[in-house]
UniProtKB/TrEMBL annotation:
Signal sequence coordinates: 1-33
Region (Disordered): 452-507
SUPFAM superfamilies per the UniProt record, alphabetical: Immunoglobulin, L domain-like
Keyword Disulfide bond among UniProt keywords: yes
Segments forming domain Ig-like: 268-361
Organism: Mugilogobius chulae
Protein name: Ig-like domain-containing protein
Length: 507
């Protein structure tokens, strides 16, 4: 059959091939044309270029250099390469690229748009990006990265964005709180809004968050995270709510937490003070000070750079140059030095700006002693306590550890003029009194030892001589006969029942 066809049909001429190539080029997407077509690809309105919802897979080339706003949202862009714009766009301030399928950002993607102030990359498929991708954007003020699949952020990813004010990171997959973005002395000292809500954060650095200034806490949103329930979390949120911070007031019902236990029950964080964990109800504490110290009262406002004035207790204004112990510092805080007793009371800070006014009350309680004296008081109390304990120990030693008395000592030799070691004489009168009164007043208290008392019939023999003891007793009975009338008489059997007793015996 091929033999019957004309020869010219078997070989296409060169002009036919050229026509085919030109036709193929016409079918290519208009985005690859060298000149931006503002009538078919995008809508150009003065310095605004809108290419939204045009099913673009690549960014159009040759964007006019006078463009201020470029809208690429709602397309099919997958990559933002370094050559997406060949020419520099010095006037481009707003770049909108949300609702695409962007998974990759070149490290040089923003080299030609260094003057961006607003960048919207939300609702894409970003998972991570190079730590230096945003380095050229030193003028950026707002960055939207919400509704992506970002799981982690490098700690230096935004370090050069010194003018950044608002950062939106909600609806991602982050599990770590990016504290380096808001802590003191961070390069992002102008940041006033950080949204990390709807992520996977379970633990918050509560102590660090509590120490942040109010203008940071006012714009710090972390609701709708699987936070661990704790009384510290409740106290933090309750304090923010009392201060009427936007982050706590606007999304109060969205702050939830997970109770401890295997069931992982999710409960409202603001209700931990009732049935769930019985946390103590939060109450704003008063400031405390001591005499003669230097005190600093902070006017912690919800907005930056506000003009601040102070009123002392009794509605006395603080006026520069007056002979007052209180003065307003350059940052708006109030310094009181030295603190006096009559400085107690309520201090009022009035903060004003062009768009917002705020009043802050601080109740000050001054202790009636210095900080040094309080230490002396503690030392005195400590010394007193030690003295009391030492006294108790000495009394116990005296009662239970004193040496054994003579009546329990072993038998020793008798010296001249000494009483027997088996007895103890207690005399209540001097030895030189009238002998006639000795029988009545001078008495002997004896503790009888059963071993040496046999044969005495219960009578005490202080000298160890039974006969002499009987004679002495008869003489004493004769001398005191008239005085002993009506009194108890001595009997031989007087103390038979007491021979083995420790009870003192009066003779």
């Amino acid at each position: 059959m091929l033999d019957t066809l004309p020869q010219w049909r078997l070989h296409c001429p060169s002009w036919t091939l050229l026509l085919f190539v030109v036709t193929l080029l016409l079918w290519l997407p208009l985005a690859h044309t060298t000149t931006l077509n503002c009538h078919k690809i995008c809508i150009c309105a003065s310095n605004i270029v809108s290419c939204s919802k045009m099913n673009l897979t690549e960014v159009p080339l040759n964007i006019p250099p006078y463009t201020v706003v470029l809208d690429l949202s709602y397309n099919d862009l997958k990559r933002l390469k370094s050559d997406w714009t060949i020419d520099r766009l010095p006037n481009l301030h707003n770049l909108l690229a949300s609702h695409n399928e962007i998974t990759y950002l070149s490290s040089e993607a923003f080299l030609n748009v260094k003057h961006l102030r607003y960048l919207d990359l939300s609702s894409n498929d970003l998972q991570q990006f190079n730590d230096n991708v945003f380095d050229p954007l030193v003028n950026l003020e707002v960055l939207l990265l919400y509704n992506n699949r970002i799981s982690q952020i490098d700690r230096v990813a935004f370090i050069t964005m010194v003018n950044l004010q608002k950062l939106y990171l909600s609806k991602n997959q982050m599990s770590r709180f990016p504290l380096e973005l808001v802590r003191e002395k961070s390069p992002l000292d102008k940041l006033s809004l950080l949204d990390i809500s709807s992520n996977r954060i379970a633990v918050l650095p509560i102590d660090e968050l509590r120490a942040l200034p109010a203008y940071i806490k006012n714009g710090l949103y972390f609701h709708s995270n699987p936070l661990h329930c704790s009384c510290e979390l409740y106290t933090l949120l309750a304090h923010w709510f009392i201060r009427r911070l936007n982050s706590a007031v606007d999304f109060k019902d969205d702050y939830t937490c997970v109770l401890p236990g295997p069931q992982k029950t999710q409960v409202p964080a603001f209700e931990l003070s009732s049935d769930y964990m019985n946390c103590s109800t939060f109450k704003e504490e008063d400031e405390e000070a001591f005499l003669e110290q230097t005190l600093l009262l902070k006017c912690d406002t919800k907005h930056r750079n506000m003009f601040k004035t102070w009123m002392l207790p009794g509605n006395v204004p603080v006026i520069a140059g007056n002979n007052q112990t209180a003065k307003v510092l350059h940052d708006g805080n109030l310094q009181v030095s030295p603190v006096k007793t009559d400085d107690s009371g309520t201090y009022t800070c009035f903060a004003t700006s062009e768009t917002f006014n705020e009043t802050i009350y601080i109740v000050l309680k001054v202790h009636n002693f210095t900080m040094h004296r309080s230490g002396d008081t503690f030392n005195t109390a400590y010394t007193t306590l030690v003295g009391c304990l030492a006294s108790v120990v000495l009394v116990l030693v005296y009662l239970y550890l004193t040496p054994c008395r003579c009546f329990c000592c072993p038998n020793k030799g008798k010296g001249r003029g000494e009483d027997s070691i088996h007895s103890s004489m207690l005399s209540v009168t001097p030895t030189h009194e009238d002998p006639a009164m000795k029988a009545e007043i001078n008495r002997h208290v004896a503790f009888i030892d059963s071993k040496n008392s046999q044969g005495q019939n219960g009578k005490l023999n202080p000298n160890g001589d039974e006969e002499e003891d009987e004679e002495e007793e008869e003489e004493q009975d004769a001398e005191a006969g008239s005085l002993m009338k009506g009194k108890r008489k001595k009997s031989v059997a007087e103390s038979i029942s007491s021979v083995f007793s420790d009870t003192p015996m009066v003779v």
